[in-house]
Design brief:
By secondary structure, this protein is mainly alpha-helical. It has 10 helices and no strands. The protein has one domain. It is globular and about 60 Å long.
Length: about 230
């Protein structure tokens, strides 16, 4: 029970929930697109069963990712992936494929599960990194996040549109977690243990790197989008 009174536990839990919230906006778009042609009653069923199926697969993937992150150099690779995810989150290009609206309930559920699974790599890596191998923390974090993902995605999308700072904060958090993950890689564990006083430097630098790079790329793509619309 002492784990639940630890500030580190609640901090990591908050990171897991925020990562899931910030990175689930695109999943809401998938759900809406896949179920938009269904009758209202079947839309609710598609959202419910599609989300449950996707979440079960995501949990399995996350546990697998936690194991992989215990191997040498994979945390460094995962940190690099997190940096890329955070930068693209700010850049505004999620790489989503256009999805057809399905008039068949089973097809809609299948589309939601497959698309959510493909697009959930960022969630899986981010949550596994924030959990730091703590299975209890992982289960609690995902358990709290599930209803937020299912019922709160539309609201989150609206909040992100109204308050872009949420996206920036989420991207910075991914950079922070990436820095922590790289510094705790088993391959450099001996060196890191001897330089524990430097443990805050990688997270701070990575958070700044994500925000600075993402904002810079965003500033470059905005004029191109304006020119394309004008043309």
């Amino acid at each position: 029970m002492s784990m639940f009174t630890s500030p580190e536990f609640w901090l990591a839990l908050s990171q897991i929930i925020l990562i899931n919230i910030v990175l689930s906006g695109d999943n809401a778009v998938v759900i809406a697109l896949a179920s938009r042609s269904l009758p209202p009653a079947q839309q609710k069923m598609a959202i419910l069963f599609g989300s449950i199926g996707a979440i079960v697969l995501r949990i399995v993937l996350t546990f697998f990712a936690v194991y992989l992150l215990s191997l040498p150099y994979l945390k460094i690779a995962g940190a690099a992936l997190l940096l890329w995810i955070g930068i693209n989150l700010l850049k505004g290009e999620d790489g989503e494929e256009e999805l057809e609206g399905h008039s068949n309930l089973a097809a809609a559920i299948k589309t939601i599960i497959i698309a959510d699974l493909v697009m959930s790599l960022d969630n899986v890596i981010g949550v596994a990194a924030a959990a730091k191998g703590n299975v209890v923390l992982l289960v609690v974090g995902l358990g709290v996040s599930i209803p937020l993902i299912i019922y709160g995605s539309t609201l989150i999308l609206k909040l992100m549109t109204r308050f872009p700072i949420i996206i920036t904060a989420g991207a910075a958090l991914l950079g922070w977690v990436a820095g922590e993950m790289a510094f705790s890689d088993p391959a450099i564990d001996v060196w890191a243990s001897g330089h524990h006083s430097l443990h805050l430097i990688p997270p701070v630098l990575c958070a700044l790197l994500v925000v600075a790079t993402g904002k810079w790329l965003q500033s470059r793509t905005e004029p191109e989008d304006t020119a394309n619309r004008a043309g």
